[in-house]
Give the backbone structure.
Amino acid sequence: MIHVIQGDITKVSGFDAIVNPANNSLLGGGGLNGLIHRAAGPQLKTECRRLNGCETGDSKLTLGYDLPCKYVIHSVGPVWMGGTAGEEKLLGSCYASAMQTALDNNIRKIAFSSISTGEYGYPLDKAAKLAIATVSAFVAEYPDSFDDISFVLSDDLSFNAYSEEVKNVVVKKPEEKKKPAKKTKSKAKTSKAAEEDTKDASSEEAVNEDVIASTDAASTEPKEEEAEIEMPTDIPVPPIFQSAPYNRYHIDWLIDEVANGTLHTYTCFWLAEKNSDFCQLSPWYQGEPIYINGRKYLTAIQYISSEKALLFNDFNSYKKIMNESDPAVCQRLGDSIKNYDDSVWKNSYREILFNANVGKFLSDKKFADALLSTDDTVLIHANPNDDIYGAGITKEELLTESGALKTPPQNWHMEDSDFQAKNELGFVLMAVRDQFS
């Protein structure tokens, strides 16, 4: 009944529905979610817009359109936060709600993906075990309602993890009732049979004595106090994924483009210029609430700072940031995270910036319209006080009146500093724009 297949879930045939690891907006995004939307065609997003999103742990149904299946079950998984935020319950709910959706709509053949183990970071071994256990329990409860439940996985690690868990699925058979002992003596047993019975009886008696002994010991020995869990202070440096979309553009890329004579037009933005058409691109800009993985953020900087706190296991700072509406205070709290490791953050912040602005794009139409209106221009965060996320100089120093580049990118830096400005926010926003163009 439950199978594991290695392949592309957007191309498998013979299923009534596939399960999409969706985000709360249901409008697509990165990873497999984006691939499924692109394979289904634009009609899928049109139908999803009418569903008004989906809560984490829940599922919603749409047609499959250009996919080789009739339906798509969109199930929103949790982001892994160390296992302290109810992730296990939410992920189990994903699979249970997807199965219930299938049951309610007479969908008998389902292809599951591995929910939450991609960009959401849920540990693969834990996710596979929970997924198989939840689905097999549902099938056991409704054995006549499904013909085929398969997990379709594209990579070797996921395929192996789910294959191992499927091996552990045991179909429970009803226990056989023991026959009562006969009171009347019938035909005498052979000496060999009598010997076997004696062995069985003595063995069973010994087991029973052991069980009683262990039960008595458990009842008399005092319970040990639960050890307090200590969060790790040494955070491993994450690998750099050069092919990730958020790494497509960077300062060295622009330096090479300018050196090779490639012509670009430029768009500058900075929140301080409130009259700018593009101040919405600032992470401090407070427009519509941003919803990412079922959580509400007032600004992108609130999300970025809170993720930074979680990365370094500073839960006190995380709580303060999540209860703070002022973006400046969120920034300050993010700058004073405990256990901070610069090498870890340098390899992490581009992905966090990217996810923040993908969520902002899906939640705030004014931001989305502003970003898309920049077409294919090079975006520059013209913040003279920031040479990491910004260019370290003003718009007037960056561009001529005609919009040409006045200062070459290798000369971008804050006043009285020789540090090469990186304009990370501008480049990551260009990657987000590519994602939705």
The two ends are 41 Å apart (CA to CA). The first helix runs from residue 31 to 40. Residues 2-167 form a domain with the Leucine Aminopeptidase, subunit E; domain 1 fold (CATH 3.40.220.10).
